[in-house]
Design brief:
alpha+beta; 19% strand; 13 strands; single chain; seven-stranded mixed sheet; two-stranded antiparallel ribbon; 8 helices; 304 residues
Length: 304
């Protein structure tokens, strides 16, 4: 192994270790400014390119990281248009030239089988790092690479017909390793770490809830299909005990309003009936989508 190979391996390992510490084991997003704090061997080192989607340092022979910028208007899962029939993710070339330097850098990372970092935008200049990810193969006809968040290596090969149980496994693990962390970070950031129903601020007690569940076609992983909810209100929302009208007013199922129980039912649920949401994103494009709320509210009404 050459000195350059040693540095490459050490850099990738140290970068992932540093990100784990700085993001509290993935719980806290990181800003582009904070990323400038990283150094190796006492020297500052950029982990993410400030202008480009692909970071290929001059000291390395292949790419180190890729980046997806945040858009509040996204109307699909972060990777919805990039999932193949095998359940794996895709990442587009830079431009349409296969020999562009950044595409060559990704191709070399694929050839070497080295781990990369995916900086997924959850706000302007704020990212959720996903790592390690690997490039499995290239699809030149679609101008893209196949990405694996360390799930499918050794399980699938290019051109294979993937059995349904394998595809379900890949999708489930990818959702766990990429979709859920990105969705949670995006929603909690938009709601300023407050429960939409009761304004509870303790992050450990908050979830990112889907208005329409992600297993359904309309269950997009965009912030407008999300609500920051404390665990009790999330559970109540999921089981249709609690509903949210399209005008952002809370309702509690009629039979529970007749029950007599302890303070949680009395104040935590019944007390919110007919009340407006207490926390909403400041950015209008990040607020709950009225059509999605209406669809879910119809299910709540039917359950009652």
């Amino acid at each position: 192994m050459t000195g350059a190979d040693d540095f490459d391996a050490a850099l990738r390992q140290e970068a992932q270790r540093w990100l784990t510490v700085r993001t509290n084991d993935g719980q806290t997003p990181i800003s582009s400014d904070e990323l400038l704090d990283f150094s190796i061997d006492g020297n500052p080192f950029r982990l993410m390119d400030a202008q480009r989607g692909i970071r290929k340092p001059r000291q390395l022979t292949s790419a180190l990281s890729i980046r997806t910028v945040y858009s509040a208007d996204a109307d699909s899962r972060p990777y919805a248009d990039e999932v193949g029939s095998d359940g794996l993710l895709r990442y587009k070339w830079r431009g349409d030239d296969p020999n562009h330097a950044e595409n060559r850098a990704l191709r070399e990372a694929m050839r070497q089988g080295v781990p990369l970092i995916w900086f997924f935008g959850i706000a302007q200049g704020v990212y959720k790092p996903i790592y390690p990810i690997y490039l499995l193969w290239e699809e030149p006809e679609h101008q893209q690479f196949v990405i694996d968040p360390d799930v499918a290596r050794g399980i699938v090969s290019p051109g294979d017909t993937v059995e349904e149980h394998v595809r379900r496994y890949i999708l489930r693990e990818t959702r766990h390793r990429l979709h859920q962390p990105v969705f949670r970070a995006t929603v909690l950031r938009a709601y300023e770490k407050r429960c939409a129903v009761c304004a509870l601020r303790h992050e450990q007690l908050l979830d990112a809830a889907h208005i329409i569940p992600d297993r359904e076609e309309a269950g997009i992983a965009a912030v407008r299909n999300g609500l920051a909810l404390c665990k009790i209100h999330h559970a109540a929302y999921d089981c249709l005990v609690l509903g949210i009208r399209p005008d952002l007013v809370v309702e509690i199922r009629a039979d529970l309003l007749e029950e007599i129980d302890g303070p949680m039912l009395e104040h935590g649920l019944k007390g919110r009936h007919g009340q407006a949401l207490m926390a909403l994103p400041r950015i209008r494009a990040e607020r709950p989508d009225r059509d999605l709320l209406e669809e879910r509210y119809a299910a709540f009404r039917a359950a009652g």
